Amino acid sequence: MKPILLSFFNYDLRSAPVFAGLGALAAMLYLRSRRSALGLTWEDFWGLLLALMLGVFVGGVGTYVLLYGPGPTVNLERLLRGHVAGGSFLGVFGGAVAAAFLFCRQRALALSPVADALGSAAALGLVFMRVGCLLNGCCYGRPTGSSWGIVFRDGASRIPHELLGVPLHPIQLYEAGGAGIIFLWLHFVVSPRMRRGAMKPGSGFLFCMSFYAVLRFVGDFFRASDPGRLAFAGLSTAQLLVLFILALAGGIWLRRRTPI
Q1: How many other C-beta atoms are found inside a 10 Å radius of the C-beta of residue 73?
Q2: pTM of the model
Q3: I want to staple 138 with a disulfide (CB 3.0 to 4.6 A). Which of 21, 117, 158, 191 is the partner?
């Protein structure tokens, strides 16, 4: 693994933020490719992009500050000192959805098509993000005796010292692969069916919510990194959040009262 991509002037450029940036770029380019189909003017597109950037930062960092790490007080103190303690993809996704909703409402734009494109873009961006997590050693898995376990040896990685040299579940790759499958399914199967009228607008976003919730719920059983501040019945914070997402998606499916 390569947690530090480049060092210069006593500054270490770590893998995770670089690949998070690549993920954001990939998501932006995907949304850009869908601009005309979504009926967005260039002004609308750049306005939406700005709203998403704000939503992603506030949602990702805010969720981490409140629900992860050493707790809100310590996290907030670090944030006020200019150190971003961490981020949460569920917070990133939630912040992006909230920003898109508010922007579309303010501009009187149809929300469902934008949400569909956003779901695909989020899945694509997550592929890059989790590769960065793998290189960085964050979001690491539990020890495993399986032949596909991955070993971290670099002390600069985010792996705890006691787990260096120990085979771990490559949970980052599990999630990256799952996110890639979700993106391909949405882009090549669901989107064409929505364009033909075989599915209602919004179906892609609901599929994204549902599939990622299942992926994250199962994946967290193999994850050893920060389980979050909330726990119930042995479930992590992320698992509790995605159960809520699954319930919300299921309720929306039932309310639509149409075959998927």
Answers
A1: 9
A2: 0.91
A3: 158
